[in-house]
Write a structure and sequence with these properties.
The chain has 392 residues and is α/β, with parallel strands linked by helices. The chain is built from 13 helices and 11 strands. The strands form 2 sheets. It has a 9-stranded mixed β-sheet. A two-stranded antiparallel ribbon has the order 5-6. Strand 10 and strand 11 form a beta hairpin. The longest helix is centred in the last third of the chain and has 17 residues. The chain starts with 5 loop residues before the first strand and ends with a strand. The mean pLDDT is 92.
């Protein structure tokens, strides 16, 4: 249908990593400053009409009353409407979607979407991620994130001949990209042998098949598309989005070689944006594990089902490949501060579309970029956003 009623006027993030020296509020303020500074024509923070904050702080830290409602004060715009959005790993991308709808509705002209997460101040043993993934007290006993995703890897290997080397190639590519991203948690290049030799976590996943726990924050400024020229002469528009859900428990899954919610969300986003997978120039996808990226690029329609591993090993998803994936380094290298992840992916897409990604810049043939997250218990929710430089 060609939507494009909302534009991204500015976006930015802080460097991801182990940010023990920064508070939750300081990280948020840093991301907001970065987004404001990246608005070409300048931006007065007082122009923000509303804020949507993506965070799992309540879930992870047991502080439900602290999170979204503290951010306006922390970033110097107390008084504006503010809503916290929590939707598992796609929290940031869903906050972006909701912010876009708020602008498109005409209720607000300028919306701030900000994602922020503190992941490193508590250990896993203290229940940080186990609390987030809590489910049935018996059915989910002993489950961790690697335990949830490993069966998808073994089944994909069984059905399609995917190898450990194919899985490892995802990590190698994303660390290569991350080494060229000044905001990435990990900035070291690795080899396939490094991945294979790293400590086993849950067969067939090894340590370097897994994304790190990371602190970080990212922000984006959404404005009415009719008014974006007051902020920038290089506008990027919200072309479409989609959200979908699936059964949360593994025993309810119909398949272990696809993440059903991703496929449904993608089709909804493609339909709204009036594009197909062949018209996407680059994509930031959810690679919490190497197998996840392989599933993603299949479910998003970039490669045929079962060919994700081959495409990765053959370099189709590299910076110079047919469909560059995770030019930022992805979750595997850049990190995964849950609430901030989707907004940071949006920022990378925004840079790529504007030709501002530096050493990571890829060729933009059609002017379209896709952002994707999947998460929740058993990958029960997925969000896809599509950005474009094509005017309404």
């Amino acid at each position: 249908m060609g939507w494009n009623r909302v534009a991204v006027a500015g976006a930015g993030l802080i460097k991801f990593g182990e940010l023990f020296e920064q508070s939750y509020e300081q990280m948020a303020a840093g991301a907001f400053r970065a987004a404001v500074e990246n608005v070409d024509a300048g931006f007065n923070p007082k122009r923000v009409d509303a804020v949507f904050v993506a965070t799992q702080r309540g879930t992870l830290w047991g502080q439900e009353g602290i999170g979204g409602n503290t951010i306006p004060s922390a970033i110097g715009i107390a008084g504006v409407p503010c809503t916290r959005i929590e939707n598992a790993c796609p929290s940031g991308s869903d906050a972006f979607r909701v912010g876009a709808m708020a602008v498109a509705s005409g209720v607000h002209d300028v919306v701030l979407v900000i994602g922020v997460e503190k992941m490193r101040d508590k250990s896993t043993e203290e229940g940080l991620l186990s609390r987030a993934a809590a489910g049935h007290p018996i059915l989910t006993r002993g489950e961790t994130a690697p335990v949830l995703f490993a069966p998808f890897a073994t089944r994909h290997m069984q059905e399609y001949g995917t190898t450990r080397e194919m899985l490892a190639s995802v990590a190698v590519k994303n660390h290569y990209n991350g080494a060229r991203d000044p905001y990435a948690h990990f900035k070291n290049e690795i080899t396939i042998d490094d991945v294979l030799a790293s400590p086993p976590v849950c067969h067939p996943l090894h340590l370097l098949d897994c994304c790190p726990q990371t602190d970080g924050a990212a922000a984006a400024l959404l404005v009415n598309a009719d008014k974006v020229d007051a902020y920038t002469k290089q506008p990027v528009y919200v072309a479409g989005f989609g959200v979908a859900t699936d059964h949360p428990y593994l025993h309810e899954k119909q398949s272990f070689t696809t993440l059903k919610a991703t496929g449904i969300a993608a089709q909804r986003a493609y339909r709204m944006a009036d594009v197909d997978p062949t018209q996407i120039d680059c994509a930031e996808v959810h690679d919490c594990f190497t197998i996840t990226e392989i599933l993603d690029i299949e479910d998003l329609g970039f490669v045929d089902k079962g060919k994700g591993g081959v495409a990765s090993l053959d370099g189709e998803t590299s910076l110079t490949g047919r469909i560059p994936i995770n030019t930022s380094g992805g979750l595997l290298a850049k990190g995964h501060p849950i609430g901030a992840t989707g907004v940071a992916q949006i920022t990378e897409c925004w840079w790529q579309l504007r030709g501002e990604a530096g050493d990571r810049q890829v060729e933009m043939r059609n002017g379209n970029a896709l952002q994707h997250n999947v998460g929740g218990r058993g990958s029960g929710v997925s969000v896809v956003n599509i950005l474009t430089t094509n005017r309404p």
